[in-house]
Each structure stands twice: as C-alpha cells, then as structure tokens.
Amino acid sequence: MKRNILKYVLPAALLAVSISLYALKADTGVAPDADNAGLKLPEGFGALKVADLGGQARHLVVTPEGLIYVKLNRLKDGKGVLILKENATGKADVVGGFGNYIGTGICIKDGYLYSSSNYDVFRYKLNAKNEIIDPNSPEKIITGLKAGEHPTKSIVLDNLGNIYVNIGANSNSCQEKDRQQGSMGIKGCPILDSAAGIWQFKANKLNQTYKDGIRYATGLRNVVGLDWNQQDNQLFVMQHGRDQLHSIFPTMFTDKESALLPAECLYALKKGDNAGWPYMYYNQMEHKKIMAPEYGGDGKKEAIGNFIDPAAAYPGHMAPNALLFYTGNMFPEKYKNGAFIAFHGSWNRAPEPQAGYFVVFQPFKNGKPFGDWEVFADNFSGSVAKTAAGRADHRPCGLAQGSDGSLYVSDDSKGSIYRIVYKK
Amino acid sequence: MKITFITAVCLSLMISLQASAQAKKPAALASPAASVAAGQKIYLQYCLSCHMMDGGGVPNMNPPLSNTSYVKGDKSKLIKVVLNGLPPSTDIDGQSYSNTMPAQTALTDQQVADVLTYVRSSFGNKYPAIKLADVKAAKGAKKK
User: Which of A98, A154, A329, B58 could join B62 via S-S bond, C-beta 3.0 to 4.6 A?
Assistant: First the structure.
C-alpha cells in the first residue's frame, strides 16, 4: 500500500516541481518590445518600456511581487511616490501613490520602504507582500537637512541598521561668489560642516537632525548615485564633479579641457574619508588629484591634503545619477557583482558636444573596479545629434534590480520606466 | 587642433549668418545689428555654458531664455538679473532652478545692453532692444 502511494505521489510531485520550475522560467521570460524600447543594448539583451509616467521619475525600487515604487521630483496628482503593479507581460499600471513631497531617494530594506524629500527621510512599514501598510502615517526618521544648489537626498542602508544620506554642496566650488568669473574659494569652506558629504543616521530612530548623525565622509560636492556593495560590505558613491573650469578661469582652461574635466568619480568610502571638494578635482587623463583654481591651483599643481583616490574615474559632466551593484542571476557571469551607472547626461560641455545619457557597466573583480567601463544601454536621448545638443528625449536617472535579475531604469525627463532583460 | 579650427570656423560662420539675418530684420523691431552681433560674442563667452547654444537652459538647473516672463517682461528687472545675479531656486514662471546666476560684474553697461539685445532678438524672442540708457536707468533705480 505504502509503495503504491509512493508510486503515484512521486511522479505527481515531480510533475508539480517541474511545472512550478517552468512557471518560474516563464515569469522571467517577459518579452522585450520589438524596438527594445528605443535602446541600444549589447548582443543578447532586450528591453521593454514598463510604463510612461509623464513625470520626473527619479530613483525607483522593485519588489518580488511586481510592485514598483517610483520617487518623483514633481508631484503627480498631489503624490510624490507612485506605486505601479506589473502584469504578466511586464507592463505596469499606476495603482496608487502617496507622500506629498518631491524628492529623489527611495529604497527598501528589512520590511520598510525609505523615501526622501529634499529635507527629510521617511519610512513606511511594509506587509509580507511588500505593500505599504499605512501610506498616510510614515515615520519621519531624519529632518531639517540643508537643501541648496544640490538639494536632492539619495539614500542607502547597510546591514547594521544605518542609513546613509547625501547632502549636496550649496555651491559649485565654494567660491566667495558662486560661479562668478575669477571669484576665489572661501577660506575653510564652512559649508563642509553640514553639506558636501555623506551623513550616517540610525534607520529606526525618529526625528534625527544633524546632531544625531555622523558626517561619515566629506569633500563630496554632490552625490546622487550610491549603493552598498555587499561583497565589500562598503558604501560606494558617484560624485558629480564641479562645473565651469573654463568660464570661471578662462585663462587657465580651454573650452575643450573644461568639457572633459574634472572626472566624475566613483569612490569606495570608509568612515572619515575626505574626497577633497572644494580644494581639488580629479584629472582622469593624468590620473592626478589637481588643486582647484579657487584654492591656488593653476590646472597643473597637484592637490595637497589627505584626500582619497577614486576607485574609478569617468569623463566630466556626464552626471552619474544612479549606481547599482548587480547581484542578479539573469545576466551573463561577467556582470555579477559589477556596477551599473546611469549617466543622466551633461550640460556643462558647451560649446563642445554634450555627452552621457546612457547606462554604463563597470566590471568589478574581488570587490574592486577591474578593467575598462563600457556603455551598456544607449540611445535614451533618441539620436547622436540630440545627445550632442543636450536635448535628450529621455534621461536615465534611477536603477533597480528585479528579483529575476532584470535591470530597471527610470527616466526623469518623460517618466519612462525601462526593463532590460537577457534573452538567451 | 583641426577640430578646434573647424569649430572656430563654424562658430564665426554662425555668428556672421546670425548677424546678417538680424540685419535683414525690419527696422521696426529696433534691434541694431551691431548691438546684436556684439551681444552674441558676449553670450558665447559668458552665458552659453549655462543657458546653452539654443538658449533653452537646462531643466531644473538653469532657466531657458525663450518664452519666459523674465526676458519678455520689464526691462529693468531683466537688466538687474545680469547686473546682480539671482539666488538658487528662484521661482521663474512656476519652475524652480537650482543653480546660482552669478552677477556679471565683468561686463560694461554697453555689453549688458548688447547681450540682452541679442537675447531678446534670438531663440524665438522678438522683443525691442535694450539700450545703454536702459542699463544706466536700471542701475540708478537700484541705488534708491
């Protein structure tokens, strides 16, 4: 009798397992759009447009249940965060929204969704299906942050209950008169006490202000893209380098030099690090830390000070707005634990052609950048001419990884949400 | 080097084309070609890096110079933007722009008049010239 049961149960169980395996596979097999949503991708990859939100979609996060939370930089119907729900084809509809504040940062960790305005960070408790239990009563965990010329707050958590917040500088290069030709740097750059760095707070404590936080790293002009590297158990950030070397110091820098310099830098941060703004910038062609002209530099003198080196450096002004370490299993092996960087695209290269408006892949090995970066997803702008003119149709701004290993990209120009999949 | 030369040639060609196009405009628009041409040189040197070649600015960062109340509106208010700058996040036609507009202290009054005359007759704008006397009057008003 027992044997008989086994005889029938075993095949049935095997069948059930294989059906569910098949179902899983089918789930990850969403079909790319015929035109790959207008993107140019490496061989074997495809893309679909998940949604068109028509608004400024900044950072985003995707749950295993197919919910997408998108942070907006302009309210839509009074909401600062939109909730999207994916259907079986991978397309998504807006099913809700909450939060009457604009901003950039959003992430999920350990049963909470964290979302930032330009002054505060809120968190919302999630249920087992990653739905927000009470969207109208978030916990305000951080408040009263400064928001000047670089107002947005990007956020990420570590594995010890800490949250990291970027506070951008209130100026381009800490001049006496911001962006004015020939104006020199303010001695000691006092804003460094409360901006131009990354601050660490507790993720579960209410109403924290500057006095409750730690200035984790300083000398970072503005960071929009940041991520926690699980291999290194370390914070990595992408700095937006300073603008306008030529227009502020026309005798020291040509238009062409000013278009390429300074580098947009990837930093691996440790507590107490100083990346050197406003006293220096990084020259990616000479691999040197150069003294800022506002603080006595001439475009050649190397910086003096205890400033860290970048982990990797990219051409100037391309505006890295998102950083994501890929831990998924969908993409080929070379992408595992490497970094995707969304370059929002330049404006500060005129009269030289503008650049960026693409997602880059930076290979990593043993937790460190290894080898040259490559353009992964291109043509967000719509054409080479639109890129050169800085008049892009779409501008990549946020990155998120789906539970199947898809890579999601948000666009803060028209609010398109893209999903990139590997087809083979 | 070659590219720089070509760029320079293109740029000067564009300037002269623009200048000749302006010169052909009816006198009723009161945009003296000389002021426009001089203003364009100022624009390329001092304004281009933020407001861009097409005057369209940069979304959320640097405001556009076309179809904006600041350019088409009160002359004195516009002149003072160039003379004194604007702080970050100034509301312009319901939009906020995060970058500082620096005071253009290096410009003479005539250059301020020229560059604004250029801006007010470019990028789709068709507004009367700003004259030296307008700049001096705006400066006088500031001192009150």
Answer: B58
Amino acid at A268: A
SS3 content of chain A, % helix, strand, coil (to 5): 15, 40, 50
ipTM of the complex: 0.81
Q: Indicate whether A202 and A270 sit together in one domain.
A: yes
Chain A residue with Cα closest to B61: A149
At what angle are helices B2-24 and B33-42 packed, to 10 degrees? 150
Q: Which residues of A touch B60 (CB under 8 A)?
A: 56, 73
pLDDT along chain A (424 residues), means of 10: 50 46 51 97 98 95 98 95 97 97 98 98 98 97 96 98 98 96 97 98 98 98 98 98 96 96 98 98 98 98 97 98 98 98 97 97 97 98 97 98 98 97 88
**C-beta atoms of A390 and B58 within 8 A:** yes
Bridge partners of residue A101, in order along the sequence: none
Residues 79-118 of B with CB under 8 A from A: 85, 88-89, 98-103, 105-106
User: Over the stretch A117-160, which tens digit does the pLDDT of each residue have?
Assistant: 999 999 999 999 999 999 999 999 999 999 999 999 999 999 99
Domain B2-142 grouped into CATH 1.10.760.10: yes
CA terminus-to-terminus distance, chain A: 46
Residue among A145, A350, A409 nearest B62 (CA)? A350
Q: Per-residue pLDDT for B26 more than 80?
A: no
My answer on whether A5 and A121 are in the same domain is no
Q: What is the dihedral of CA A293, A297, A300, A306, to 10 degrees?
A: -110
What is the span of the domain harbouring residue A299? 33-422
Q: Are B38 and B32 contacting, i.e. CB atoms less than 8 angstroms apart?
A: no
Contact between A171 and B53 using a beta-carbon 8 Å cutoff: no
Q: Rounded to a whole number, what is the distance in Å from the CA of A317 to chain B's nearest CA?
A: 12
Domain map (residue ranges) of chain B: 2-142
Mutation target among A178, A346, A357 for the B interface, most CBs of B within 10 A: A178
Taking the C-alpha atoms of residue A170 and residue A241, their distance in angstroms, rounded to an integer, is: 14
Cβ–Cβ contact B10 with A under 8 A: no
